[in-house]
Amino acid sequence: MKYLLQVDFKMDGPFGEEMSKAFVDLAKSINDEPGMVWKIWTEDAAAKEAGGIYLFETKEDAEKYLVMHSARLTSFGITDIRGKIFEVNEALSLINKAPIK
Questions:
Q1: Which domains are present in the chain?
Q2: Residue partners of 53: CB distance under 8 A and separation at least 6
Q3: I need a surface site. Which of 19, 21, 23, 60 has the fewest CB within 10 A?
Q4: pLDDT tens by residue, 10-64
């Protein structure tokens, strides 16, 4: 079974193209995290929110990443970090073309 991690937080920016340029090295490093399958970066410049949706191989990998990532965000001055971990219902998700295999 795979696990989905949802993280979001308030952030003043950068967003859009500036975000893409500023965080390219961070994005590359996330690929090396244990159990990480993929990440979708999320942003809402109007609401000043950002975050991501991640797929992990195990709940333990998702939990460890959330702890590490929360500490990293806190070191950047970001507070009010929200993280949730969900089990993925693979049978139903595959019906809806989820990239989980």
A1: 3-95 (3.30.70.100)
A2: 4, 5, 6, 39, 40, 42
A3: 21
A4: 999 999 999 999 999 999 999 999 999 999 999 999 999 999 999 999 999 999 9
